[in-house]
Amino acid sequence: MSFTYFLKRAAFAALALAALMTSAFFLVRLTGDPVDLYLPVDASSAAREAMRVRLGLDASLPVQFLDWAWDMIRLDFGMSLWHNRPAMDVVLEALPNTLALGAIALTLAFVAAIVIGSIAAVNAGGWIDRGVNVLSQAAASVPDFWLGLMGVLLFAVTFRILPTSGFGGPIYWVLPIACLFARPFGTLVQIVRGSMIEALNATFVRTARAKGARDGRVTFVHALRNALLPAVTVTGDLAAQFAGGGGVVEVVFGFPGIGKLLIDGILKRDFAIVQASIFAVAVVIFFINILVDMLYASIDPRVRVE
Amino acid sequence: MNKIRKINALSVGMALLVGVALPAYAASDKLTVVVTDEPKSLDPCDTDLSGNSRVMHNNITEALVNLSPKDGSVVPSLATSWRQVDSLTWEFKLREGVTFHDGKVFDAQAVVAALKRGQDPSLACEVGLATLKGIKLTAEAVTPTTLRIKTDVVEPILPNKMSALDIGSPATPGDGKTRAPAGTGPYKLAAWTPGQSVTLTAYDGYWGDKPPIKHATIIWRAESAVRAAMVDTGEAQIAYEIAPQDGTTGQDHAFPNAETSLLRIDAQVPPLNDKRVREALNLAIDRDGLVGTVFHKDAQKAMQVVPPSVFGFNPDIPVWTYDPKKAKALLAAAKADGVPVDKEIVIYGRIGIYPNSSESLEAIQAMLADAGFNARLEMLETSPWLKRLLKPWEKERQPSILQTQIDNTEGDAVFTLPNRFTSDGNQSTIADAKLDKLIADASKSTGDERKKMFQEAFRYIAVDAVNIAPLFHMVTIARVAKNVNYTVDVQAGNEIKLRTVSYR
Question: In chain A, which end has fewer C-beta atoms inside a 10 angstrom radius, N or C?
Answer without folding.
Answer: C
